[in-house]
Amino acid sequence: MASKGRVVSGRQPGRRRMKDTVFETADDNVRSLYQLLNIIDGKASALLSFNALLLAAISIWLGYVPQNYLHLFLDLAFLALLASCFLLLRIIWLHWSRPKETAKLDVLRKVRTARYRFSWVLSMIAVVVVSAVSVVHTVGTGLKAFGHCQSGPCAHFFGPEVFGNLDHGR
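Structure (tokenized):
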């Protein structure tokens, strides 16, 4: 077989098929850069899905929480997730390049990587905040449920003015 073109099923592709080959796949360097960009895009898509689930959970939780510090922390986590989503959506941006623009494509890869890392940090901050709020809420609910938080600093801290709980309207 001749070394030109790709061998498919024991035969060479015709001239027309060779013309249809996308110009990006002809250059190995460009092809590897696109593979790296695909990896970043895949990770960005997964993180975007995770953020969407956490945003939905926080928005449901916010409907039950009075306007207090608990609500404020959930709002901050919500805003961090929105910022992360904004950056992730900017990562998933279609960009086709010619083999001559390899350096430009590498810069694009670096920018997308930096945006992904920052989005990941924002998402992790939101997860830590939501986890901490969940722990504080659970402890407060447990203390109140078992009658160990009737007065003093405990009652104030877990009261509706500071951290409240989901049963604030009952």
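The chain has five helices and no strands. The first helix runs from residue 15 to 20.
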